[in-house]
Each structure stands twice: as structure tokens, then as C-alpha cells.
Design a protein that fits this description.
The chain has 210 residues and is mainly beta. It has one domain (3-27, 46-209). 0% of the residues lie in helices and 32% in strands. It is built from no helices and 12 strands. The protein is elongated, with a radius of gyration of 17 Å. The two termini are 12 Å apart.
Length: 210
């Protein structure tokens, strides 16, 4: 399934070419003329998004080669467009709110504003055509554990109940579950010892559109 997004907020996301089972390859958004979507100018620059204006949806993206993948869609639910600001810190937490994974940081590079009144992204789909939403890409190695006797991460597997996104001005929480019947084993992102992958050179936050 091709991954559809609107605005790139950082540099490069390296996903294993061997991943299958629902993993998606992002495609850059182009206007009808074939030119990239332009960042706002000083004249038409919308205000920065506040935490109260944003909502999150988690979507499992399947697994492959011992790694699990997911996406957190970041939507503007207010009546006006807004610019997503960073950095954004991501931490997996349990039901009591205790951190169970490492915290990773996603720098945010300015791009087009998020579309206002963006509706929830249904599981197994992408945002509605023409809607600018954010996509925070997740991946974690869950299968292998060199420190275990059999080389598998069976005793040290960590599955967060929720993801906490800390943004300037506050935090948002979304369940680590996509309820995806097509890939039930990977509806929640699996990790080994709570470790999350950090793509080179920096973790990427992207905004895409269909």
C-alpha cells in the first residue's frame, strides 16, 4: 500500500527493503503542475499548532525482517490551518503512564500548514485527498535479541499500551493499537527491550497528502 503524505518535516527514513506485510513506501506530494508543495511565506504564514488543536491516530504498518512498523497520523482538528512545530518527543508508556521504551526525538522542518478539520484516518487507509496531515513513522526490531540464549527476544519483548508525543506546549497520547484485521499480530507495535529504531541521519517526521 503506497504511503500518502503531505509535507516533509525532516530528512530521510530508511526502511528495510525486505519489509512486507503492509509496510508502505512514502511518495512525495506534488501539485497538479508537478511541483513540490511550497512552504508558507511570511505573508500567509498560519499560526503554530497548539496541543488543543491536534489529534492523533495510530496505524500498524505490518512487519518484515524482524522489524515492526507503524505510523502516527497528526491531524489539525481546529477550524483554521496551523503549522506543526517541533521538536516532537515520542515515548511508549504503559496503562499507568510509566515509560516502557526509550524516548526518541523527531525534529520538525517547516512545511505546508496542516489542513483544518481533518477527520480520523481509517485503519488500513491514508488521509483523504487534498488533506495535509502529519505522519510520524515508527519502527522497532522485535524478533532478535543477541543477549538471549536462543537469540530471540521472547522474554524481553515490550509492547507499549500507548504512545506519548511531547510537543511544545504539552503532550498528546494515542493507543498503540490499530485493530487491523488484516495484520492482527502487528496491530500494536512490538519492541525488544523498549528500543525504537533511529533512522540515519536523523529521525524523520513527514507530512503527506494523496
Amino acid at each position: 500500500m503506497g504511503r500518502v503524505l503531505v509535507v516533509v518535516l525532516a530528512a530521510l527514513m530508511l526502511l528495510s527493503p525486505a519489509c512486507t506485510s503492509g509496510s508502505r513506501t512514502p511518495e512525495p506530494y506534488l501539485t497538479q503542475t508537478g511541483s513540490p508543495l511550497a512552504a508558507p511565506t511570511e505573508i500567509n504564514r498560519p499560526p503554530a499548532c497548539t496541543v488543543a488543536e491536534l489529534a492523533l491516530d495510530y496505524q500498524g504498518d505490518g512487519a518484515g525482517a524482524g522489524s515492526d512498523f507503524g505510523t502516527i497520523w497528526i491531524r489539525d482538528v481546529a477550524a483554521q490551518p496551523c503549522l506543526l512545530r517541533g521538536p516532537v518527543e515520542l515515548t511508549g508508556i504503559d496503562r499507568a503512564g510509566k515509560a516502557v521504551t526509550y524516548t526518541v526525538t523527531y525534529p520538525v522542518h517547516e512545511g505546508p500548514a496542516l489542513s483544518p478539520k481533518a477527520v480520523r484516518v481509517p485503519i488500513g487507509t491514508t488521509p483523504a485527498p487534498g488533506k495535509v496531515v502529519g505522519a510520524l513513522l515508527l519502527s522497532a526490531e522485535y524478533r532478535d535479541d543477541p543477549s538471549s540464549l536462543n537469540g530471540l527476544c521472547e522474554q524481553n519483548r515490550v509492547v507499549p499500551a500507548h504512545w506519548r508525543l511531547s510537543l511544545p506546549g504539552g503532550a498528546l497520547i494515542v493507543a498503540n493499537s490499530s485493530h487491523d484485521p488484516a495484520f492482527p499480530a502487528y496491530s500494536s507495535l512490538l519492541t525488544c527491550r523498549g528500543e525504537l529504531n533511529t533512522p540515519s541521519p536523523i529521525i524523520v517526521l513527514e507530512l503527506w497528502v494523496k
